[in-house]
Each structure stands twice: as C-alpha cells, then as structure tokens.
Amino acid sequence: MTLLFLYQGEVMDNISLALNNFKELMNCNYDFIIVCNKQKSDIKLTFESKDFYHLVGFQYLKDIDIPKNEKQNLLRLLMSI
To answer: Is 0.85 topped by the overall pTM?
Structure first.
C-alpha cells in the first residue's frame, strides 16, 4: 500500500517512503563506543514510534497542525491509512 498526499495537484509520496524506511529501522538498534582522550562514551541509538514525528520533520510543517499529544499515535495512524 502506498500512502499518497496531494498538494496543488501533485502526488507526494515522500511521507510514505519515509514511513516504510522508518518501519525497517524500528527493528534496529545501534550501539556506538566512542573513545577520545582515554574517555569512553557509549551511545545507544534506537528508533521508536514517538521519534517518527521529528525524524521526518513534521515540526517544520506550517500548513497542517498535528497536536503535540498525537505525536506517538501519528505513526500508527499513518500505517493504518
């Protein structure tokens, strides 16, 4: 299923592409170990549904308003369309 958004007559499926890529990332965890000047730092990178809103840049959209309390449900909503 492809999620399409229409804007001024043009088909925009960038959100659908981002959604599909993000779904694959949700199964991945990355662990980084960084050493600098004999100081070790561990960084763990995970992808959770609540992160989708910011990773695709919805906070910069000016033409639609997504309530802040809907950020976690946004991924689930888009996957159901």
So the answer is: no
Angle at 29 between CA 55 and CA 80, to 5 degrees: 50
CB neighbourhood size of 27 (10 A): 7
Decide if pLDDT at 1 tops 50. no
pLDDT at 9: 42
Neighbours of 56 (CB within 10 A): 20
Torsion of CA 22, 24, 29, 30, to 10 degrees: -80
Interatomic CA distance for residues 31 and 58, integer angstroms: 27
Res. 54 pLDDT band, cuts 50 70 90? confident
Closest CA to 52 of 12, 21, 11: 21
Are 44 and 31 contacting, i.e. CB atoms less than 8 angstroms apart? yes
**Other residues' Cβ atoms within 10 Å of the Cβ of residue 66:** 14
